[in-house]
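The instructor's notes for this session suggest beginning with a concrete chain rather than abstract definitions. Hand out the sequence below and ask the class to guess, before any prediction is shown, which regions might be ordered.
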Amino acid sequence: MINDGDKIAVGVSGGKDSVTLLKLLAEYRRFSPQKFDLDAISVDLGFGKKRTDFSGIQKMCDEYKVNFTVVDTDIYEIVFEVRKEKSPCALCSKMRKGALYDAAVKNGDNKIALGHHADDLADTFLLSLFYEGRLSTFAPKSFLDRTGLTLIRPMIMIREADIKSYAADLPVSKSRCPADENTKRKSVKDIMSLISRDIPDIREMIFTALIHPERYNLFDKFEKDSELF
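After discussion, reveal the predicted structure:
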């Protein structure tokens, strides 16, 4: 994921995942065999027309000598007040990523690091299955044609429970989004919590199925077999 000469922008929302990723990469940079530069970028959505306090993130960046950029936007106003989206997450995510990518390009970054973890991998798979009828999830590394940036997810093998423990003393801020507890992703998490009462290692089983190709056994494997249908 990381090569010599990379300039990596960490997308920092202020939540536990992104703040943990920022600290992990800043610490890793100290002894990494690859020499790379690190930026941090936060996109302020302008909730309630009030700017977010990123002073904790700024202090952390100063400590690790990481350049920190805050992008002020009116995404909240557009999504919730102008468009009045009933399902705001898709539009908000698209606009937020656009602002993040634009800032990274302006900073001269060639890679974007996001804080998705192993639990997110499983949740995204179930979101695609339940709501789109697709077997799909995100990749650890992908190239963004329109921007020339490479998107990386360095924490994809880390469980959320471990991140929660690690982030206990970090400058994490609670989400101010009014839709935070009323999303499809939250519904999937609730479903998983119910299933885990009977199958405690359900997330581990889904994660293992996703990353081990020898456990993949769907129709396309037999598409050349005329006797299948």
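Then share the key points. The beta strands are 7-11, 37-44, 67-72, 111-113, 141-144, 149-152. The domain at 7-216 is CATH 3.40.50.620 (Rossmann fold).
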